[in-house]
Amino acid sequence: MGEFWKKQRVIVTGGAGFLGSFVVEALRKHDCLEVVVPRSKELDLRRRENVRALYEKARPTLVIHLAATCGGIGANQVEPGRFFYDNAIMGIEMIEQARLYGLPKFVQVGTVCAYPKFTPVPFKEEDLWNGYPEETNAPYGLAKKMLLVQLQAYRTQYGFNGIYLLPANMYGPRDNFDLQTSHVIPALIRKFIEAKENRSAVTLWGSGTASRDFFYVEDAAEGILSAAEKYNAPGPVNLGTGLELSIREVVAIIQRCIGFSGDIIWDATRPDGQPRRCLDISRAKREFGFTAQTPIEEGIQKTINWYLNA
Questions:
Q1: pLDDT (tens digit, 9 = 90+) per residue, 244-259?
Q2: Is the whole-model pTM more than 0.85?
Q3: Which of 19, 119, 177, 254 is deepest in the core (most CB within 10 A)?
Q4: To the nearest 10°, the Cα dihedral for 113, 117, 119, 125?
Q5: Is residue 26 part of a domain?
Q6: H-run or E-run covering 161
Q7: Cα 101 to the chain's mean position, in Å?
């Protein structure tokens, strides 16, 4: 990366959020000409006129669309309608107005939740349409997957250059640690820290047998920028580590990093979510040379350190 980014004016939707903040930092590190971060409190991207005005004012050469309404299993169960509508409408309008504006390139960041519930591990991009997603987060996953359909249709009909990325389960500093809406690693970190402070047991959802490909957020940001610079094909691309870890294995790492020695209770009445997740990352390596760099224990320790000092 170098000269490419010095010539770009980039809109990063969701740029003030968890992943987005690291993408913005990476863009500035690579001397991007201009970075525009629309804030949701000031600009509702579900409204067509707002999206159109954003393009006209910012005059971007590239858009990285990260803005999303999302959360963990519990949040998906409580607000499936909102998760579907917000994510579908934001993406549809961002892509359609980009086409009308004449944007040179659009980067859509999707979700691993778009994959079928029972997908052979590791997940290959060609398996994306071979079944229905895991029920607890299907509305969110399907809303995001429709944006892949839109981009491919627009490429065919209009020659619109939009790419679609499928990141694994991300974690890291600045994540959401609210137990009602957070994803698994920040929720586990908060629970273990509070249990250690209170000298109490930790109660965890499910059986702990579900597995995930946990992807450190700074690696994710670099993967997105690599794709934005070098990838221009219609097929979706997985971004992850290619390493499958069970929730129990991650719990053991967090327990060790925090120094928790109390009891752990597994609440089997709570859902595990998708049984297994791990991505085949060969396309990203082949097409734009991306490989994740951060080992899981190092990433978790950095996340714990940030949470303790936030």
A1: 999 999 999 999 999 9
A2: yes
A3: 19
A4: -30
A5: yes
A6: none
A7: 26
How many distinct structural domains can be found in the chain? 1
DSSP H helices in the chain: 3-6, 18-29, 48-58, 73-78, 80-101, 138-158, 184-198, 217-230, 247-258, 282-288, 296-309
* Core vs surface per residue 154-191: b (16+ CB within 10 A) or e: bbeeeebbbbbbbbbbbbbbbbbbeeebbbbbbbbbbb
Cα angle for residues 74, 184, 116 (degrees, 5° grid): 70
Tell me, yes or no, whether 197 lies in a domain.
Answer: no
Distance CA 124, CA 141 (A): 16
Residues 167, 109: contact at Cβ < 8 Å? yes
Whole-number pLDDT of residue 2: 66
Which residues are catalytic, by number?
140
Instruction: Cis check for the bond before 122: say yes or no (omega within 30 of 0).
Output: yes
57 found inside a domain = yes
Give the single-character DSSP code of 120: P
Q: Domain residues for 41? A: 3-175+213-243+278-294
Rounded to whole angstroms, the Cα distance separating 198 from 177 reads 18
Beta strands across the sheet bearing 105-109: 34-36, 9-13, 62-65, 105-109, 162-167, 237-239
Q: Residue 227: which residues within 8 A CB-CB, separation 6 or more?
A: 107, 163, 165, 237, 239, 284, 287, 288, 290
Amino acid at 138: A
Q: Which helix (H) or strand (E) holds 265?
A: strand 264-267
Q: What is the CATH number of the domain that holds 98?
A: 3.40.50.720
Closest C-alpha among 5, 26, 24 to residue 13: 24
Confidence of residue 1 (pLDDT cuts 50, 70, 90): low
